[in-house]
Write a structure and sequence with these properties.
By secondary structure, this protein is of the alpha+beta class. 16% of the residues lie in helices and 23% in strands. It has a 3-stranded antiparallel β-sheet.
Amino acid sequence: MPMDPVCGVHVDIEDALTATYEGRTYYFCSEECREEFREAPEEYVGDTASLLFEDEE
């Protein structure tokens, strides 16, 4: 189960909101978290990013 990179909540892929950054899909629990990520995605990606997204296929 992926984790919202903004708040750290685990989210259900089927119910989550998404955003794509550098070819990867990130999942969010709310519109607020997704918008915060969109404003500064580089603040939420890095060494732990592999825990937060699934590669787009």
